[in-house]
Amino acid sequence: MLPAHNTPAFRELLHQQVEKRRTFAIISHPDAGKTTLTEKLLLYGGAIRSAGSVKARKSDKHATSDWMDIEKQRGISVTSSAMQFEFDGFRINILDTPGHQDFSEDTYRVLVAADAAVMLIDAAKGVEAQTIKLFKVCRMRNIPIFTFVNKMDRAAKDPFALMEELEQVLGIRSCPINWPIGTDGDFQGVYHRDTKMVELYTGGDHGKSMVQKTDIAIDDPALEHVLAKHYRERLAEEIDLLDEAGDAFDLDKVRRGELTPMFFGSAVTNFGVEPFLERFLQYTPPPLPRKSDIGDIQPEEPYFSGFIFKIQANMNPAHRDRLAFMRIVSGAFEKGMEVWHSGTNKTVALKQPQQFMADEREAVEEAWAGDIIGLFDPGIYQLGDTLSGGPKLHYENIPVFAPEFFSRVRPADSMKRKQFQKGITQLAEEGAIQTFIRTETGREEFMVGVVGVLQFEVLEHRLKTEYQVDIVMESMPFRFVRWVVSTPKPIDQLKLTSTSGRAKDSRDRDVLLFENEWSIRLACENNAGLELAETANRK
Questions:
Q1: Which domains does the chain have, with CATH numbers?
Q2: What global pTM score does this model have?
């Protein structure tokens, strides 16, 4: 039982709990090793005893964060997952995100719930396309970005070249916190610039367990017995160059998202993972305030508040349940508490709260600002909903991104239309797909829009396995959807090209569909006063 929320004892407890929390997302291009890094952080946090790699296809051991059948089959992450663990006195909430660009909208939503981001970069490939997109989202929110250069156990780009790439491609300065020793597939360890210690690695059973490490001061004569001469000479040269020409570490710039601390390591072998985690927890901020319609809400406000940023149906196929993931913004959460819900404008009881280790859950009695918890959803929650035990506030909306691929969809068996509609509705509420109705053809046509074509495969798989519905999909030529903000005349009287179409979204809002950008420009030119938007609010 928590102390009364208006007492000094509660405020002190709230302060302590907020200070020890860290909530961050991991972003990267596909195959940079993001899910593997997540596994290793959990390993060092004591949350798991043995790490499973998504690459180990012959093994029945899969990554903890990949819980869907299709993820285990394909070896990729297609949905974000939330995990909690404790390390060194901190309470850590990790938001693992899909790397594949076809599922980037899920990642965008997750970043709204994060206070920092770990940007994972493949040491051999540098900054890649999807990393650029996700970096821009982080930059828009001014959240701290930490760079982990992964796969140093293989031949890698020159570290100075990678620093230059961060600045030239992403427009952010970097400050290496450690420096790699051996970049030609001969990775030996790292030099920690803050402590002037060399950390050399052995063991780790190819990443399955914690590595053995040797720590030795850079000026210790014994270093020559454990590190070959050419490594020592090259390291000395590079340290001098870094100290002269590199950016100094500035925590304020880091927390404003203007400077990225840089770490080197290998997630698959565990080299450099623990020192990265230790320093990351020191540098990254505790839970940050969030904007609302009544101003910025601080985490140490005495009343509970939070928002729904993710909905996931059927995480447990045996129970056919539906969970709403909530980021707690302020105050403390207690099981069974009654709060105001923006979606219904009613008071709701928050029952069966859960915290996660991927698909493993445990009931939670209390949680604090910064935590991620799952709420049993009887079908009342929607993405972007606010919950508050204090004033009736609304947190910033989570936008709907325009899909780029469209298909007509119907159940293969018309007798299963009810299950089909239920499945489609639930998956749309998750944000995995968007649904549209076309009536201009003379009959009602059901259409699904997605950000990436792989989402169609996931849709088909989930409808079949979770709802026992086979579907028929017919690809459509549209590539753009625009929401109608204002129009000079009724939608069906607009002058459009033959490659355009009209429809309603799931909230009965008018949208226009286009095959190319030329059709969009022509629609605006031929209909003076027509205003279109690339994104829409979820409300």
A1: 19-93+115-283 (3.40.50.300), 290-388 (2.40.30.10), 405-533 (3.30.70.3280)
A2: 0.80
